[in-house]
Amino acid sequence: MAFGNTNEPYVAEKDSIIVEFGKSGKIILIVDNKEDFERLKKMNINQIVQELDLKLNEETGELTVVEIKNKSGSKEIVRVREDGMETEVYVGGIKVIVDESSGNTKVRVETGNKKKTDPSFRSYFNVDLGINNYLDSDGQFPTSDQPYAVKGWGSWNLGLNWMASQKISKGFYWDFGMGVQWYNFKFENRDFQAIKGDNEIDFLERTDVNGFKSKISASYLTAQTLLKLDFGKMNDNGKRGLRLAAGPYVGYRLGGTSKFAYRELDGSGRKTEKQSTGIYLNNLRYGLRGEIGVGSFTFFSTYDLNTFFQNGKGPELNPISFGIVF
């Protein structure tokens, strides 16, 4: 039974025992049955607490005070949680917070949905959208005098990922899953065409036509795993905290083509040539992925530890990507 009291003393309408403790502590027990009342009078406070079977959650510090069941079988539980000078009382969808940390006691009442719990396991779907480039053997981005130098706009990366997340501890997760990634490397020198040579990939300068788009694309089936730290959930701040994640990935190539779009020198309409250049691409790719998130935004970066082309079949280039996770 819960009640509010102003300046008037509480008067029990039925047989009752009132236990007072400290300066203002009070437990009021009301019974309707005379035999129960006589038995109750003979019990000490420790017996009363044991009879009530109050449950303390050692991890959260929450104390279950009353559990009410209605005829439909559903339950409403009254819980009390003490954290230093702050006390929280949960009754159904209402939370009463009493803050005695300052000189004046503050009482705040919050209503709405019950507090959402962080599931121990969940699955989800996300989309990567970013841009690509690659680093040469000196760890530098290829300069524009190289035929395979890429331009940022148009060298896009798209990934569709099916993921699962296992909670290890509060704010610490292990994420893993599979997905499909598409990589496009759009050449800055659009007059060069990537073609399949006899023993390696060649970059042919097309002086016979007016080229306006040239690129290499590849797709991969990829498995990845990440260890994630969510400082917002660690500090009970929801999505307002910083999120960090890192882990390895491995992918198997599904396809690889080169595309060259051009117009004839006499001004003909647009024409396109495609070639299968996958024969010179590494079938297996592996690397590291990192993520950083704030609020609703998550940024990612990937770096392939192996080269894009097979050894001796093309320039030594390690793909790198940057983008946003949706």
From TrEMBL:
Domain of life: Bacteria
Protein known as: Outer membrane protein beta-barrel domain-containing protein
